Amino acid sequence: MRMPTWLAGLALAGIAVLGLNGVATAAPAAAPPNTVTGVGVGAADTNIDWAQLKAEGVEFAYVMDTSGTTSKNPLFTSQTQGARGVDMLVGAVHFALPDTSSGTTQADYFLANGGGWTANSNTLPPVVDLEWNPYGSAACYGISQAAMVSWISQFLTEVHAKTTRWPVIYTDDAWWTECTGDKGAFAANDPLWTNQPASGSAALPYNWTTLTFLSVPTDALHAYYNGTLAGLIKFANS
User: Fold this and answer.
1) Cα angle value 25/93/46 (rounded, 5°)
2) Could you tell me how far CA 20 lies from the centroid of its own chain?
3) From CA 66, how far away is CA 42, in angstroms rounded?
4) Which of 57, 66, 77, 102 has most Cβ atoms within 10 angstroms of its Cβ?
5) Can you tell me the distance from the alpha carbon of 227 to that of 216, in angstroms, rounded to the nearest whole number?
6) pLDDT digits over 159-210, tens only?
7) CA distance 9 to 26
8) Residue 174, number of CB atoms within 10 A of its CB
């Protein structure tokens, strides 16, 4: 879950992205049981064949939108429109840079650039991507665990205040333990997205007891909703 340098034209390493310059090549070889298949895309993913993805059973897309307060995926609008054009559910992702500005400031930037939510049956709640620092040697961005928990709370609270939806948190247990001290009572409101190992169950961060979305490290193309399509549509609107 390192180096999501999608802004530099590379594939997003955390949330699953398409390969081969964004051209889908195959349906998932072995989707986890009782899940709905989706994809995550970013600026590196051009020329996406959305109709092909839909034909392969992809039902939703999360689109990388912003990072910090200065970077935005230039393909965000076209990718969102492409996914909606084939009746996929669509959501937006913000890559957190907690050392550059407050959580409130970054949430406002995200929301001003497409990261909102509407109860229209096909918009998924926003995602905040909390990962190891890809831009320096300080894995947790050089801030204290208490400051990280505060930053996360600011971001989540601001998005909820502006959209009425609590964001999905994309992270993993190792990051959460090291960078927050395994703290932060967010599980009651914020759905979790993390990697699911091919064998066994993922270790879940503090207080979470279930996954809402999952990625499989051996499958760079797809992401999954932990439930049924009817459940995903309900989740989009709830």
Assistant:
1) 35
2) 21
3) 10
4) 66
5) 16
6) 999 999 999 999 999 999 999 998 878 999 999 999 876 556 778 888 899 9
7) 22
8) 14
Q: Is 161 exposed, middle or buried (0-12, 13-18, 19+ CB in 10 A)?
A: exposed
DSSP state of 37: E
As given in the structure block, the two tokens for residue 218 are 């051996």
Q: State how far the Cα of 211 lies from the Cα of 202, in Å rounded to an integer.
A: 9
Contact 67, 129 (CB under 8 A): no
Q: What are the start-end ranges of the E strands in the chain?
A: 36-41, 60-67, 71-72, 89-95, 127-129, 168-170, 192-195, 213-215, 223-225
Bridge partner list, 72: 66
Q: How far apart are CA 34 and CA 23, in angstroms?
A: 26
Q: pLDDT at position 196, please?
A: 79
Q: Please give the Cα distance from 14 to 134 (Å, whole number).
A: 11
Both tokens of residue 92?
A: 């937006």
Instruction: Tell me the pairing of strands 127-129 and 60-67.
Output: unpaired
Cβ neighbors of 103 (< 8 A, separation 6 or more) are 96, 150, 151, 152, 153, 154, 155, 156, 157, 158
How far is 28 from 26, CA to CA, in rounded Å?
6
Task: Check: CB of residue 67 under 8 Å from CB of residue 94.
Answer: yes
Q: Residue 190: which residues within 8 A CB-CB, separation 6 or more?
A: 156, 166, 167, 168, 169
User: Which residues of the chain fall short of a pLDDT of 70?
Assistant: 1-30, 197-200
